[in-house]
């Protein structure tokens, strides 16, 4: 993390460049978003999704930045006004670019699969009780509920062996913008928006506290555990993600023949009719003129839908800016647009019924469960076996760890496991599949 130096780029533009040229970001191109990655029909992966979220986020940041720069307490501030007017859009875009970097292979099922090994050992059996005793309550919670959001912060700030000090060395503003759930695992609470999940692993607590202190985040008043209110910029990053996946998943489902042209068209038109910037009749005529290529017609309506949601979310942010600035706004921006709740709920219902439960998606999730949890079992079992007790196979497995993920034998069990999870969570779908098959003798 750093506060900036003289450069042809601003420090916030440099954040963008460091993320986009990084290996963890490139690996997103072979990580599933929702659908398996087919050979013939193009659908979104984690990388294309992240780029589109960044595009939406930049628009949101630009709209809100210009508005904030006109406020009395900001417009005469020689540092604050140029930041909000010229740089906020770059902060939000960079955070959006990085928001999924902590997600493992095989979509959201990959997160749960990483924790499956530890959940299965959370029993009253003597050997499992002894295993669990190696970890503190906070550490055990991290391992049984692996969280991609927390892993993103770890990837961006971790100094791996043989790598540059300080990780990506991003600005505090960008790091604060990805802290969607600024709390530790034991403080998470599904009933509360900013603690629905958690934002950092116990091993990264010092880094987390450094970020929230620098940004003056508001401490959450809870009885136990560490938790803070969100940074205001998080709402814009979250909105960009919500807008993108809700709309893009529908478009992909149409391309794959899971949803009909009429179903997707009508849902998008239901959103667009609420836009004060578009004549709905003109939009309908344009969409109809493109029906010779249904994919192109849907792409046109997708663009208009996203544009409508951007301006609607920006309006919600502006109207609720006081509650957002104090950390007391307890809904996402997209869930705070009354006139769109009906159609967004419809899209969510259809997505769950027909997209996320589509046969190909379910098959991928099952495969992901077996592959990721199998790899965790192989590597964790080997790493936590004392060196003098490891058999030849376990030594060979440990030898497969790349240098940057290796651990010292004197490390605590939790630190060893986190090094293993760093390795496995960073794998692409294809690499995880190949390694799993080789370790099981299915492929040589």
Automatic annotation (TrEMBL):
Upper classification of the source organism reads:
Bacteria, Pseudomonadati, Bacteroidota, Cytophagia, Cytophagales
InterPro entries documented for this protein:
dGTP_triP_hydro_central_sf (IPR023293), dGTP_triphosphohydrolase_C (IPR027432), dGTPase (IPR006261), dGTPase-like (IPR050135), HD/PDEase_dom (IPR003607), HD_domain (IPR006674), PHydrolase_assoc_dom (IPR026875)
Sorted keywords for this record are: Hydrolase
Source organism superkingdom: Bacteria
This protein's species is Splendidivirga corallicola
What are the HD domain coordinates in residue numbering?
46-246
* Alphabetical list of Pfam families matching this protein: HD, HD_assoc
Q: Where is the signal peptide?
A: none
Protein name (record): DNTP triphosphohydrolase
Q: Which residues form a coiled coil?
A: none
């Amino acid at each position: 993390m750093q506060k900036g130096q003289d450069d042809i780029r601003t420090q916030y533009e440099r954040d963008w460049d460091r993320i986009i040229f990084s290996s963890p970001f490139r690996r997103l191109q072979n990580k599933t978003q929702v659908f398996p990655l087919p050979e013939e029909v193009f659908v979104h992966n984690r990388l294309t999704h992240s780029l589109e979220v960044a595009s939406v986020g930049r628009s949101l940041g630009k709209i809100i930045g210009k508005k904030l720069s006109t406020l009395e307490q900001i417009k005469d501030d020689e540092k604050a006004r140029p930041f909000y007017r010229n740089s906020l859009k770059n902060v939000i875009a960079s955070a959006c670019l990085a928001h999924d970097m902590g997600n493992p292979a095989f979509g959201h099922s990959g997160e749960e699969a990483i924790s499956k090994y530890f959940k299965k050992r959370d029993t009253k059996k003597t050997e499992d009780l002894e295993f669990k005793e190696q970890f503190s309550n906070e550490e055990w919670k991290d391992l049984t509920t692996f969280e991609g959001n927390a892993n993103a912060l770890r990837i961006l700030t971790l100094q791996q062996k043989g790598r540059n000090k300080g990780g990506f060395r991003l600005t505090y503003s960008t790091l604060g913008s990805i802290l969607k759930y600024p709390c530790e695992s034991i403080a998470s609470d599904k009933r509360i928006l900013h603690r629905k999940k958690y934002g950092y692993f116990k091993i990264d607590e010092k880094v987390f506290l450094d970020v929230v202190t620098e940004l003056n985040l508001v401490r959450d008043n809870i009885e136990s555990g560490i938790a803070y209110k969100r940074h205001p910029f998080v709402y814009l990053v979250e909105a960009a993600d919500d807008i993108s996946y809700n709309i893009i998943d529908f478009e992909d489902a149409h391309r794959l023949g899971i949803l009909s042209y009429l179903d997707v068209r009508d849902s998008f038109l239901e959103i667009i009719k609420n836009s004060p910037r578009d004549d709905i009749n003109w939009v309908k005529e344009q969409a109809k003129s493109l029906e010779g290529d249904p994919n192109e017609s849907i792409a046109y309506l997708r663009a208009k839908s996203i544009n409508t949601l951007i301006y609607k979310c920006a309006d919600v942010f502006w109207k609720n800016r006081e509650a957002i600035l104090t950390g007391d706004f307890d809904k996402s921006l997209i869930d705070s647009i009354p006139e769109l709740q009906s159609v967004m709920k419809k899209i969510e219902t259809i997505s769950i019924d027909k997209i996320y439960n589509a046969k190909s998606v379910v098959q991928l999730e099952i495969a992901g469960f077996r592959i990721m949890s199998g790899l965790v079992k192989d590597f964790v079992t080997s790493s936590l076996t004392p060196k003098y007790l490891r058999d030849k196979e376990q030594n060979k497995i440990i030898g497969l760890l790349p240098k940057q993920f290796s651990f010292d034998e004197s490390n605590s069990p939790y630190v060893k496991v986190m090094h293993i999870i760093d390795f496995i969570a960073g794998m692409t779908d294809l690499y995880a599949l190949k390694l799993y098959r080789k370790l099981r003798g299915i492929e040589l």
